[in-house]
Structure to design on (270 residues):
């Protein structure tokens, strides 16, 4: 709706990055509050979060590039010509977007690297961050709605959204659309609240909270992809890239929920 806000008509501020940044900063503050209850210091939370955001950006860009790679290979000669004549446009095509799943795995890997480097336990960080991941993601989806990206399919019923013209996405305003970004944001906020309640009221084994997150979001994302109208995110056959990853993520979440992975690790240490 409002990709950019001009402050005093001089300073353009992209709202996607702003809203996401606010969500991330709030998540870090909450994590700093809850970290000591898991035996993790506030400074460790802060620095692990910095590793996480670096991994998030790198992973989101890398997976976006991988979705573009088949087209680049298929039209390699054309792409190299564009690279010579307009390198910024060529790089923007290859790396100009973000894919959530790449960001998710990149963030987890970044935190893991921090834990390995400073020899601190990794699993407690999963339990701390699990309720905050859907919160940050929900804020990011609100940013998507404001920017007009990740838009929904054509829809003329109750709750449809007619986007204004966006020069970055010229096809966006052609028809009313499903507000899939806001739907996914709402489902993420519900998950965030549910995970916080579970963490407070029920004794869970280490890693189970992240398993619940994986299972819930894998199902939600698989279904939400059916309502997406943008075609830039890649896929294989009838499945989008995110649907394929959701299918693969589901059993990982189930394993974490059942706790067999942690039980196996503990038995090896005994």
């Amino acid at each position: 709706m409002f990709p950019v806000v001009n402050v005093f008509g001089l300073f353009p501020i992209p709202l996607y990055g702003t809203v996401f940044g606010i969500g991330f900063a709030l998540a870090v503050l909450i994590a700093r509050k809850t970290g000591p209850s898991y035996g993790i210091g506030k400074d460790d939370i802060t620095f692990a979060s910095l590793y996480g955001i670096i991994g998030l950006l790198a992973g989101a860009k890398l997976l976006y590039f991988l979705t573009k790679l088949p087209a680049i290979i298929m039209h390699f000669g054309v792409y190299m010509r564009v690279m010579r004549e307009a390198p910024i446009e060529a790089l923007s095509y290859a790396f100009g977007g973000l894919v959530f799943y790449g960001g998710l795995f990149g963030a987890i890997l970044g935190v893991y690297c921090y834990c390995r480097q400073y020899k601190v336990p990794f699993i407690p960080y999963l339990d701390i961050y699990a309720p905050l991941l859907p919160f940050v993601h929900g804020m990011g989806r609100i940013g998507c709605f404001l920017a007009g990206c990740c838009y929904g399919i054509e829809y003329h019923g109750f709750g449809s959204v007619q986007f204004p013209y966006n020069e970055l996405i010229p096809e966006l305003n052609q028809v009313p659309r499903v507000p899939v970004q806001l739907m996914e944001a709402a489902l993420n906020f519900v998950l965030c609240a549910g995970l916080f309640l579970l963490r407070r009221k029920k004794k869970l084994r280490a890693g189970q909270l992240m398993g619940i997150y994986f299972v819930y979001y894998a199902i939600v994302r698989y279904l939400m992809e059916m309502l997406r109208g943008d075609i830039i995110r890649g896929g294989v056959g009838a499945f989008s890239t995110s649907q394929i990853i959701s299918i693969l993520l589901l059993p990982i979440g189930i394993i974490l929920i059942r706790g067999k992975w942690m039980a196996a690790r503990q038995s090896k240490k005994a």
